Amino acid sequence: MNLTEDLFREIEGLSEGERQEVINFVELLKSKNKKKIESTMDLIIKENKKALDELGR
Asked: Coil, helix or strand for 3?
């Protein structure tokens, strides 16, 4: 059984409200991951600004 099937099986027994909490938690994790990626990209751009400006000429 794969992870998706395991998750689905676990969620089946939850109430509608509890299922919504799971969805909210997943959305929170996705949001945190997106912010982490954006922060990393901002840092890369800042650290390489001079080189990026040179390439843009």
From this structure: helix
